[in-house]
Amino acid sequence: MRKFVPIFLVALIFTSCTKPKIKFTVLFDRVDGLAIGSSVQNKGIKIGEVKRLDLFGKQVLADIELNTKTQVPVDSKFIIRNGILNSSTIDIEFSDNTTNVSPGDTVKGNYVQKALLDDLISDSTKRKQIESSLQKIASGVEKLVERANKDSLNNK
Asked: Could you tell me the strand order of the sheet in which 22-28 lies?
């Protein structure tokens, strides 16, 4: 009996500390770079992870698990975004709907096939900033080369 009490207490503490997760499925046309364990985010904050990927006809089912405090409004967008080293995340853009997705529901997701550099270059303001920065770098390198050449001639 004495051995049973500590084991029971440990089990009770463990189950009370582990919070249940909100689980549902997202249906995608493709999931390039997405893997089991990939992050599910909202505004760059991790709120869950991918638990299972499976083919469903010509589409892919992604089972995700979210923190219990995360409520996802119906009509939210589930977008796969490619990261830098071919890793991908599911980014949830919450809608303004007051009804939430229920555990066990299946929702539609989207795959965005734009690379990180394409996003930067497509934005004209960012493109101009990058162009300006590259011109400053080239000018600085040119001045360094000129100075090195002058120093080389003066030391002969």
From this structure: 106-108, 22-28, 59-66, 45-56, 39-42, 88-93, 77-82, 110-111
Q: Looking at this protein, which amino acid is placed at residue 47?
A: I
pLDDT number for residue 11: 55
CA–CA gap between residue 108 and residue 40 (Å, rounded): 15
pTM (predicted TM-score): 0.61
Tell me what pLDDT residue 19 has: 60
Helix-strand-coil split of the chain, %, nearest 5: 35, 30, 35
Ranges under pLDDT 70 in the chain: 1-19, 84-86, 113-127, 156
Contact predicate 54/64, CB 8 Å: no
Q: Are strands 59-66 and 45-56 parallel, antiparallel or unpaired?
A: antiparallel
Supply the DSSP symbol for 57. T
**E-assigned strand segments in the chain:** 22-28, 39-42, 45-56, 59-66, 77-82, 88-93, 106-108, 110-111
User: How far apart are the C-alpha atoms of 12 and 149, rounded to whole Å?
Assistant: 76
Q: What is the DSSP letter of 62?
A: E
| Partners of residue 128 on adjacent β-strands | none
Q: Would strands 106-108 and 88-93 be described as parallel, antiparallel, or unpaired?
A: unpaired
Span 41-69, pLDDT tens digits: 999 899 999 999 999 999 999 999 998 78
